[in-house]
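Could you help me review a protein record that somebody else here produced? My question to you is simply how this chain folds and whether the tokens agree. Thanks in advance; the entry in question is below:
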Amino acid sequence: MASMKNKIQIEKCIVSFSHNKYESRKLADEFSIAKAKGEIAAGKNGISHLILRSRDDEIDRLKFLFLIHGIPLMCYSLGNLICSSLKEIVVVGSDEVQRILDRFLSTAGTGGKKIQFVREDDQNLNLFHTMDLGRSKLSIENDELILFQPGDLPFLYDLEKVLGFQGNKNHNVILWLNSRQKMFPGFNENSDSEFVKRNYHYRIINDHDTDLHELKEPNLYPINFERMDPEIIDYLHSSRKDGQIVDAGIKMALKNPVRLFLALPYLVDHVFNFRAQVQKIRPGDKYQFGMSKRNFQKSVSKILNAPISTKLHDDPSFVSDIDALEDWEDFESLIHFANKQEGEGGLENIHPFGKELMNFREKDMPFLKQEIPMYQNFPGYINHVYQTLEMGYEPYDSDGNYISPNANSPEVEQAYRWYQKKCKLINSESSLVS
């Protein structure tokens, strides 16, 4: 395995506002309801009524189009990228995504960045093909990493620690792992402090034998496309949830018996020691997959014949994606709470692109409400989705007012305080740079 000398700074990004489709709404809803019921029955920390597309929808249930405080989710994610030091951004999405993108950039500006759009391929809605579409718009050198991320991370605006990470120099892929212990260090003493509720299926022993972390899979990937087959990322990403990453690893290893042999010492050490180490630290702990950080990085790097690194971060916005109605509600409640504290300008206090987002809402959303079917009566549309997924309540009243019973939960206030502090820090750092 050759040593790497990549450029440290990441300057290009592919952001996906595309998602796969089920063959029918009936199948999609059955899957979403069954998953949520299973989580409830198991007493899981995070319950997810998934937002899924289907081929027979009259209105495309594409989560990136969902409105948060009257603004499309995708615009928050675009704002994060525009705020960053990136120089080129490729957007992959549907016709409706392009329509919103054009209006958004016309009003909010590009921040001096080159931003291109490529239409999703409705017959190939897998991650591999989506990345390939994005790559086709970029000129990529063999010593640079490209940031790939799904567009459902509306408050991930502190990107510089990823774009300028020193580990970018010596690795082809960096997995920014979501560590419960780092993001919410006080969750055992105060459960309300864990304001993003998720299920953590994985375990990792970090830098010493007693440093055990509960992990959730990464949501963004710095990757060297020229030195690493993107199909591997597709393989890992598509199988990353619910412990299926183990099966993916086994299948990849069996394709490369020589590489598997090179990884064998680390895998053997894992088999004989890891479970005993976990039980010593936390007796009775149940998990779907786990490994020491050292054995994971070494074995995966050998199997893939490419240097892989992991980074356990402390930023809840990295794990706070919008896959489910509960996730959407977290952010609608957050901004609802911010406005109660600050008035209509509450968003500006928790998102550094808040002023531009609100300007876009005032200027362009009246036109988009006429052009995008989902927006013609968004509260009614969402209430219907809640009904069909058997949520047991509706988030809006008949006048379109947000009335969710979760709007004033202690977790919402915790999230508001955290993002308020983070936004203030980001804004002050931006002022110093300018």
The chain has one domain: 12-318. The longest strand covers residues 173-179.
